[in-house]
Design brief:
With 357 residues, the chain is mainly alpha-helical. Helix content is 66%, strand content 0%. The protein is globular. It is found in: Cell membrane; Cell surface; Endosome.
Length: 357
């Protein structure tokens, strides 16, 4: 898809990126303005924070044995998707503003495809987390009995599907041969593709919200039937805490991404009075901020995660010093906790840790 290809009837394969921007009404400056410098500087700062914070989460999950369960592998993969998002946005910062008109069509599709892939990976991860939570909680377990191999097969499938979704416009679902159907926000994307992509993600959000609502109603109902037995009470509290953390992650994701998807949908439907270009930059920044919200949630909700973060940072700052020991695994299954109760692990002098995850 470069300018060396001859145009055919009805197609504009030999035109530059600038041509499509001008035709869609999204004119870009050919020189750097103060606003461009501010956007790029802030954007790059956020990207570096996103990359570092999510590397910290991935490192913590790998380091601490307590996090070696399917739910944490999926949350770690979500952190990997956020990390990929930070890299994608960093790439965008180096190919935005006046740099945009210097891109070839292939480079432009790569730039957009990276963003699409990162969002798709995040959505699929959250959907996998919702299914995993539904399975474990309705079986009254804290952690799924799913094998590590199966979890990694799911993770590979998530990334393959995300990459395919990112490549779809490049493979033909574009407007190079249908100029009137070009998007305003993404001038070489077909409006029909934007409608499909936005509706698919919004539908997935709705399904996940319905799943979590059902889980919360079930847990609340089941907790009323539980006795006051110590192990059952602690199990219930741990399940509630884990659900709260996962729900906060989902809620922040929906809040940060829904405005952008709605604007994309309006653009795809050709809503001219909506002035989508006015809100585009703000909603893009909001979506980008979601990628460093999750590490903050982990730190706020989980003492073990905070302690592991500190250990990793200490190792980075003091490579010559001896490493501190990792946290122990507290719960394997509900049966393990009941066994601990029967063996007298919970005596009157023992105070259980109040971890959130």
């Amino acid at each position: 898809m470069d300018t060396a290809i001859d145009d055919t009837e009805g197609c504009y394969l030999n035109r530059t990126v600038k041509f499509f921007y001008e035709e869609s009404g999204k004119n870009i400056s050919d020189h750097w303005r103060r606003r461009d410098y501010v956007i790029v500087t802030l954007g790059m700062t956020v990207c570096f924070i996103v990359i570092f914070s999510n590397l910290l989460v991935i490192g913590a999950i790998l380091k601490n044995r307590r996090f070696h369960y399917p739910i944490y592998y999926l949350l770690g993969n979500l952190a990997l998707a956020d990390l990929f998002s930070g890299v994608a946005y960093l790439h965008l910062m180096f190919h935005t503003g006046p740099w945009t008109i210097k891109l070839s069509k292939y480079q432009w599709f790569v730039r957009q495809g990276l963003i699409d892939t990162s969002l798709t990976a995040s959505v699929l991860n959250l959907l996998a987390v919702a299914v995993e939570r539904h399975q474990t909680i309705f079986n009254m377990q804290l952690h799924s009995k799913m094998s590590t191999r199966r979890v990694f097969v799911i993770i590979v499938f998530i990334w393959l599907l995300a990459i395919i979704m990112g490549l779809v416009p490049t493979m033909g679902w574009h407007c190079l041969c249908d100029l009137p159907n070009c998007s305003t926000m993404a001038p070489m994307y077909s409006r029909s593709y934007l409608v499909f992509w936005a509706l698919l993600n919004l539908l997935t959000f709705s399904i996940m919200l319905a799943v979590y609502t059902r889980i919360f109603l079930y847990v609340r109902h089941k907790s009323k039937q539980m006795s006051q037995h110590t192990s059952q009470m602690r199990h219930r509290e741990t399940v509630f805490a884990l659900m709260k953390t996962v729900s906060m992650i989902l809620g922040c994701f929906v809040i940060c991404w829904t405005p952008g998807l709605v604007v994309l949908l309006l653009d795809g439907l050709g809503c001219e009075p909506c002035k989508v270009l006015v809100f585009e930059k703000y909603f893009l920044v909001l979506a980008e901020c979601n990628s460093f919200v999750n590490p903050i949630i982990y730190s706020f909700r989980d003492k073990d995660m905070r302690r592991t973060f500190k250990e990793i940072l200490c190792c980075l700052c003091r490579r010559g010093s001896s490493k501190r020991g990792g946290s122990e695994v507290r719960f394997n299954t509900m049966e393990h906790e009941v066994l601990s109760e029967s063996n007298g692990a919970d005596d009157s002098n023992h105070k259980p840790n109040n971890h959130s995850l």
